[in-house]
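Per reviewer request, we include the raw input and output of the structure prediction for the construct analysed in the revised manuscript.
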Amino acid sequence: MNVRPVILCTFAAALLLGSDAARAHHGDAGRYDEAITRLTGTVVALQFINPHSIIIVDVAGESGQTQRWQVEVSNATGLARIGWTRDTLKPGDPVTMAGRAVKSGAPYINLSENSRLARGDTCEELFHSGMGSGREPDYPPLSCD
C-alpha cells in the first residue's frame, strides 16, 4: 500500500479542521466606539486568564455613584511576556486608562488598540496597545493628575 496518499489526506484534513480554530478569534469591528474613553478608578480584581484577561475596576461616576467596569486586556500569556503576573494589579490599586468603550453603553472597555493603562498613584505605565509585539504606543501618554 502506498502511504503517501494517506499522509496527504491526513494533512489536508488537519488543515481544514484546524482552520476553524484559526477563524474562531473574533474581530471587534462595530462593537466599540472609535472615540477614546478615559477612566480613573480602583482595581477590584485582576482575572489573569486566556483568551483575554479582565481587570474589574470601580469608577466613580459624575453623580458620585460608583460603577463597576470590566477592562479587557491581552491574554495572560501575552501579558506575562511583558512582565505581568497575577500580582501586577491588586485590589485597591488606583489605575487610569484610555481605551474604546462598547457602543451599547455597558461599563466595558477594550484596551486592544488606541489604549494605555497606568498606575493612578505613580503614573507608571503598565500597558499600551502594541506593547506585547514591541510596537510604539498608538495613543498619547496618560497624565495622572
